[in-house]
Design goal:
Length: 179
């Protein structure tokens, strides 16, 4: 078996101050950030949102059960998004061109999603189940608004990439994410 070459080919960035010299491997750090982001996004946020949606099961005619299941979906969506925000805050901004702006935009977008999920849960909680037809149409409107918020998060990546181009970060994300 051939030995794996563990010598890094990452470009080195050296900064010097009066007291110290620090060398970091920029590419490795960026790949590490991208890997952390991708894990948080795919494994925790996206999969959590998908699981919350697929866990909604309703017996025909059980309007109260449908209401409770949908409220739980919105609450779970808010919770996994709050975890995503925590993960982003832990990662900090990527050490890349426009890294701080990208980080801030991601935090803002996920923060808006928490508000959307919390609002949807509150709106669902306030719905009366006395008139099934009215409940059904109002529930559909709330779910459509929530779906639009989910799409906005997905679309925001293109928007953020356009507003704050960062070729090295884009390359690291493409390499690390696998989606």
């Amino acid at each position: 078996t051939a030995a794996k070459d563990t010598t890094s080919t990452a470009p080195k960035i050296t900064t010097t101050s009066e007291a110290t010299t620090t060398t970091t491997e920029a590419t490795d750090d960026l790949d590490e950030w991208a890997s952390g982001f991708c894990t948080a996004f795919k494994d925790r946020w996206y999969d959590g949102i998908q699981a919350a949606s697929s866990d909604v099961t309703v017996e025909p005619g059980d309007i109260a059960g449908a209401k409770a299941a949908i409220i739980e979906m919105f609450e779970t969506s808010s919770s996994v998004t709050a975890t995503m925000i925590d993960d982003l805050e832990t990662l900090g901004p990527p050490d890349a061109e426009n890294g701080k702006a990208i980080h801030g935009a991601l935090l803002d977008r996920f923060g808006q999603f928490v508000v959307a999920a919390d609002t949807a849960a509150e709106q669902m909680s306030a719905l009366s189940i006395d008139d099934p037809a009215t409940f059904g149409s109002e529930m559909t409107a709330i779910i459509e608004d929530f779906d639009a918020a989910t799409t906005e998060v997905s679309d925001s990546f293109r928007e953020i990439d356009t507003l704050y181009p960062s070729p090295d970060l884009s390359l690291a994300l493409s390499s690390e994410c696998g989606f």
